[in-house]
Amino acid sequence: MVNKLKGNFNKMDEENFSTFATYCGLALDHARLYEKIRKSEQKNKVALEILSYHNTSNNEELERTREDIGKFKAPDVLEQSFSPYYLSDDHKLLTTIKVFEQISGIPNLDNDDLYRFTLSVRKNYRRVPYHNWTHGFSVAHSLYVFIHDCDRFTKLEKLAFFVSGLCHDLDHRGTTNQFLIHSSAPLAAIYTTSPLEHHHYNQTVHILQVSYFLLNKNLALFFPNKAKLENLLTSATFDWNNSEHKLLLEAISMTAADLNSTARPWMEAREQVKELFEEFYAQGDIEKELGRKPIPLMDREKVHEQPASQVDFLTNISIPTNLKLWTDKVEKEKKLREKLDLMATLKEESGGHITFRNHAKPVTRGRIERTRSLLH
């Protein structure tokens, strides 16, 4: 085509050459694109290696755990007065291992594997005010109390329950799903629904197969599940041998355990609510900076509305859920009703509100940037 032997180049020759040049350009562009993709994949592999190194336990931590577990006297986690909030992080870790040893349904489970797993779970919880290692331990403890003496569940199912509770908020950023979606966060781009729950699951999936429990802690799924369970109980048709009925109960149990801090003594529950609102307000600060109006629950300038929101939450979600599942209903209901009465009193009093540590702090760029970093 370039060295035409006879005659001059005509219009058809020009068109053919133009088409050929276009394909050559596409080939070069694809080659450059392929090289970019290849480099990007290698960068991702390096990033994953770095994350894996920093997010898993090291030999020093493992050795220290081996030494500590031998001389550790575990508290009675089934005692009515036991509170997970008064244990140090290390004691929570050792107590978790002791509970694992009691309920393990895996034959020939290697102790070092168990220690490494528990250490890695703790390390993968971020240092956010509420959805942290303490919260994961608390939810796992609540599930263990619920299922420990129930012969309707196998050892493996009990193990899945406990692991699900322990891992249910892994790598939580202290923000809600809706905030991630509206902020175009990377997690929201990966998952079309419930990005946080899917992320928590994927943080655990390489060693466990407990997706049903992890994904069913989402309150968006709670209400239809609750209605189904109520219908089964009202009609007396709940069947332990029906796998769907059993999975439904397990899903509700995860939600109940996730919310069980509301059933604890007033001072403990109050501290947990404080920490939760610290996360809410930090998210609201970022939303304001982005030009969006946060919902009242996330707005530190509307702290006076907290009692009303807590009354609604206790009345419609926490009390019905806990009373359907826990055998010590009288004691649970007493604690919940006490908190409900206190919140209702605050709601009715003029100007009454709970004082939270951060609600009066100025919204500084430093605080906003620290919270923003949790999105990534």
Automatic annotation (TrEMBL):
SUPFAM superfamilies: GAF domain-like, HD-domain/PDEase-like. Keywords: Hydrolase, Metal-binding. GO terms for molecular function: 3',5'-cyclic-nucleotide phosphodiesterase activity; metal ion binding. AMP binds at residues 131-135, 169, 258, 310. The keyword NADP does not apply. Residues 57-357 form the PDEase domain. Zn(2+) 2 binds at residue 169. InterPro entries: GAF-like_dom_sf, HD/PDEase_dom, PDEase, PDEase_catalytic_dom, PDEase_catalytic_dom_sf, PDEase_CS. CDD domains: HDc. It comes from the Eukaryota. The active site is at 131 (proton donor). GO terms for biological process: signal transduction. This is PDEase domain-containing protein. It comes from Medioppia subpectinata.
